[in-house]
Design a protein that fits this description.
157 residues, alpha+beta, Ribosomal Protein L22, Chain A, 3-stranded antiparallel beta sheet, 38% helix, 28% strand, extended
Amino acid sequence: MEKEKKIKGSVAKRAKLKAIKEAAKTGPSTAYLNNAPTSPRKMRLIADMIRGVDAFKALTILRYDAKHPSDKMEKLLTSAMANWKAKNPDVDLDEANLYVKEVFVGGGRILKRLRPAPQGRAHRVRKRSNHVTLTVDRMPAQEPKERKRTVQTETAK
């Protein structure tokens, strides 16, 4: 009988972390935008337009959109694509078939200011900001769907 070698917990943990890092070298890439000076509600409108869309089509959508936050989102998308290219230097971006996998928009810092109001009072003005996380990945290969055929049966008389 052979004796099994017992591996220390720290060695196993280190090997597991190394495997996770190796897996992260390929696959999806992420870009972050923190404290963008736009309200999260306005940024979510832009995020909903590009979620799940081909990356180059999303760039076109953002480039020709008149809303103010689309400029910041366009820059973030190009950054995420550059991050993906840095992870996968041997693959061309045009052939990669990238798409926007995830877009998260969360609330950021709120700057509170005072605005003069009637009768000596002051009202609060909340200048909102947001944090955006955008993930880009290769489009998964889609298998052709089989169509279900319905067979017509004879009706009983």
